Amino acid sequence: MKFGMRTPSLKKSLKARTTGKAKRSVKKALIQ
Known about the structure:
Elements: H1 2-31
């Protein structure tokens, strides 16, 4: 169960990381 939950969770965390980076870059652009 732990392994099964880990696979999709890893993909989700990767997507969240990319979206977080994009949001951060947008915020930086807005400040500048």
